[in-house]
Specification:
alpha+beta, four-stranded mixed sheet
């Protein structure tokens, strides 16, 4: 078979309101020869249409994933985007031209991956592309919410002000995420240590006691036998147990990634977990309020804003609720009434949003709700850490103590017999 030809398709006919993004494609030309290449287009349908026009039967079309990584820089993360937003906002507020602002920001970045991303956006702007279009070419780092806010700022002629709001939004969102991760990390870390300690006892310590017990010539207590049997299973079949657990986790993650229903069930369940559930609920409400405040302050219409707000909540239960609210608001319903219908927002939040609607200060009131719940997440994380510390120590004591008691029961019995 002839080797596949590689081509770059230039498509002057692909015009859309959407900005062009890179696509990779494979297919066969009129002679049946395998060809592949890349093109810039607004979506997959436009790519396929252009390929058909050129006589190419496309077998595969996929969006090109960009990854700005450096030798030492790693990947661009959300915290990097937050810092970039703040720096760019500061430059524009100071009256520095946009291209020069990008040059200054890029020169001050130590992380090669972030610098490459900034320079790529700068190159697009220098070629005449608007900022929101340049950002939309990098969807891994700038989501629809970010792009829509920048577009609103460009259209209103207040890009510097909007970038300042975006920077504040990104900083507060990242702060909330870190607090939630902190809340989940501590118990997970301690339980992991408990599992390691238990594994060490099972593999190395208990077998030594087992050798000692063989010389007793007496029946061992049932509890001791259970622990010894578990130890034998871990030592002789531990690799298979580990493989089974690894496969189960991989299958779970596979279906979680591809099944929205599974993710929704997990998100719904996570909200009901004692201690952790209320923290996740407060975090979702704070993200909802902060995003709504930022979008509305940017002049984005409420129905359009709610669509972006839904994806920013970080929980599918709240995402579905906000999407239903958007549909109700689109039919003329008040936002307050739509929130009450969903039943996932506290009465205080609903009432403050109602006051914001009536006074024409929805963005300000939503911002106050966000500030309140961000502080609530802070306090809840601190309280949880204080509560979990003794609780986890009790759990560790029970696990390790049970193993110790199981090993010393035969010795105690032997002492009673001798006595």
């Amino acid at each position: 078979m002839a080797p596949a030809a590689t081509a770059t398709v230039k498509s002057p006919t692909l015009k859309s309101a959407k900005p062009d993004v890179p696509f990779l494609w494979e297919g066969r030309d009129k002679s049946g020869k395998r060809v592949k290449g890349n093109t810039m287009a607004p979506d997959e349908a436009a790519v396929r249409a252009e390929l058909r026009r050129q006589g190419i039967a496309a077998s595969r079309v996929r969006r090109k994933r960009e990854s700005f990584t450096g030798m030492r820089g790693g990947k661009v993360n959300a915290a990097d985007i937050a810092v970039f937003s703040r720096q760019l906002s500061t430059m524009l507020v100071a009256g520095i031209p946009m291209v020069q602002s990008f040059e200054i920001v890029a020169s001050g970045v130590d992380k090669p991956s972030v610098r490459n991303l900034i320079l790529a956006i700068k190159a697009d702007i220098e070629s005449g592309t608007s900022l929101h279009e340049a950002l939309s070419k990098h969807p891994l780092y700038f989501d629809d919410l970010f792009v829509n806010l920048v577009r609103a700022g460009e259209q209103a002629g207040a890009l510097d002000t909007l970038l300042d709001k975006i920077a504040t939004y990104k900083e507060k969102s990242e702060a909330t995420k870190k607090k939630v991760k902190k809340a989940l990390f501590y118990p997970a870390a301690v339980l992991s240590v408990a599992a390691i300690v238990t594994g060490v006892l099972m593999i190395f310590v208990i077998p030594e006691f087992q050798k000692l017990f063989k010389g007793f010539g007496a029946n061992l207590p049932a509890f001791t036998m259970v622990v010894i049997n578990i130890s034998n299973a871990v030592r002789h079949q531990g690799i298979f147990i580990a493989i089974g657990i690894g496969v189960a986790v991989a299958v779970f993650l596979h279906f979680k990634k591809r099944s929205r229903k599974l993710r929704e069930a997990l998100d719904r369940l996570s909200l009901k977990i004692p201690i952790i559930g209320p923290i996740l609920e407060k975090a979702a409400i704070s993200r909802f309020s902060r995003t709504l405040s930022t979008m509305f302050a940017a002049g984005v219409p409420l129905v359009e804003a709610l669509e972006s707000v839904a994806g920013a909540t970080g929980n599918i239960v709240y995402e579905n609720a906000v999407l239903k609210m958007r549909d109700e608001v689109a039919t003329g319903q008040r936002l307050q009434r739509a929130m009450q219908t969903q039943g996932v927002f506290p009465n205080m939040v609903v009432q403050m949003i109602a006051v914001g609607e009536e006074s024409g200060a929805l963005d300000s009131m939503a911002g106050k709700v966000a500030t309140f719940y961000e502080a609530e997440v802070d306090n809840a994380v601190d309280s949880m850490s204080a509560l979990l510390e003794p609780l986890i120590m009790v759990v560790l004591g029970i696990i390790v103590g049970s193993l110790v008691v199981a090993m010393y029961l035969p010795i105690f019995q032997l002492g009673n017999v001798v006595g």
